[in-house]
What does this fold into?
Amino acid sequence: MQRAEATDEARPSAKWLARRETIVDTSARVIARGGYHGTGIAELCAANGLGKGALYHYIGSKEELLAAIHNRVMDEALQAVDRVRRSVERPSAKLAMLGDEQLAIISRYPDHVWVFLHDFHALTGERAQEFRRRRHEFEQAVEDIIREGTESGEFREAEPRLTALAWLGMYNWAYLWLHVDGPLAAHNVAHRFAEIFLRGIAGPAPDSP
Amino acid sequence: MQRAEATDEARPSAKWLARRETIVDTSARVIARGGYHGTGIAELCAANGLGKGALYHYIGSKEELLAAIHNRVMDEALQAVDRVRRSVERPSAKLAMLGDEQLAIISRYPDHVWVFLHDFHALTGERAQEFRRRRHEFEQAVEDIIREGTESGEFREAEPRLTALAWLGMYNWAYLWLHVDGPLAAHNVAHRFAEIFLRGIAGPAPDSP
It folds into this structure.
């Protein structure tokens, strides 16, 4: 009973969480312009239309805000990984599916990804570990799919880690040029990238994509 | 005469230039750790074992230092572009050659590239324009080779710009994990990447790599 009550008390309202999400997104935009170290709390207060006390009420600390910006992207990326892992498709289709989701996420969160890639070094202790763990999980998922495809013969024999790094580069680099309202729609880009990459690693079997 | 004398006077000695290069490299290492805005002149003085006056004598200004860090990488990258442009090889071999040089540069200058990618927004005016112009020249060279290969039939018909962006991502992303003394030698990585990418974009002709 005691425990259930404590949990109830600790759970914030949907409204509070939605407000926090908006603050995280607005702050990501500001930090992407000025950098994590270059952006002060006063600037974040102004951008969010909040006093210092109210801002801290939602974000806890500046470093917690940075972790929240990372998590907004990583939550979605790891949900995509889960969907792909549960899929019964062949490795090539799984890789195409993950690439499609990855580019959709990057195009929705260009500022978050910018902050994520530029300022992850500013995370410390537990938060830095958590960030590394989650990033590793994503990268490992790519490597696992490649390994699976190599074992089934769908992909050519090669170092799976290096092949995963090639894949990650091709897709993640899009944070520099892919925007949701840009001329290159994420889905079209993903289609073309999958075509290049999957032909590039296809095994000799004629049924490869 | 007047002109020749002025030029002679303006040309720094080889020793001075070598000293400046060392300062640029040491500073790149410091800025890669602390960020451009997060690194003060005092810190750069300490790292280089120089007083403020001596440091400014070599670097001119902090922004000029940032431009010099960029140029150290871009000079080499554009020299590689020149070599590849003069080559009489087929487009596939040209792309492999450029990739090989690109990864060698990234592995030699991980700190410079880090600074380059994270802090190019801090360049202003003329220097920002010059940076954009040189980066565009490199990207355009990749696109030109792809266009050439598509026209000759060596590569499949596709959007050359998008294909160039895929190539740039695959290779440039290596700045996050490729180091000259790391377990993955640049040349081996370049070989594997070229294999993936060139198979990925190869035309239907049986003589493609």
About this structure: Residues 31 and 150 of chain A are 41 Å apart (CA to CA).
